[in-house]
What we know:
Layout: E1 3-7, E2 10-12, E3 18-25, E4 33-39, E5 46-51, E6 58-60, E7 68-73, E8 78-83, E9 92-99, E10 110-111, E11 115-119
Parallel strand pairs: 2-11
Antiparallel strand pairs: 1-3, 3-8, 4-5, 4-9, 5-6, 7-8, 9-10, 9-11
Amino acid sequence: QLQLVESGGGFAQPGGSLRLSCAASGFSLDDYALGWFRQAPGKEREAVSCIGLNAGNSWYLDAVKGRFTISRDNAKNTVYLQMNSLKPEDTATYYCAADKYAYCSKYAQYWGQGTQVTVSS
């Protein structure tokens, strides 16, 4: 069974950090562009950060530039999102996605189940 499983979400205070992980099973991420998306209550899902087959090819939502870092470890079949200097507006359910043909697409082939991130004092 092909699936992506996120972990690492939780509660953080403003200014804090969390690290999200997304592990793939049933397929190799080597040939997939990967991304992290988020959806807050009442809002549309938005792309937060994406990384191509070449780890040097990455993109960030303006709101998270300089605070979030995406990385991939093909040996571990995992993609990460390091989130620093968290803000209350980062509160959302975060999803990882993988697509073999499209980069940073909201129509990605595979999605994780989501992990909740809550930033509050």
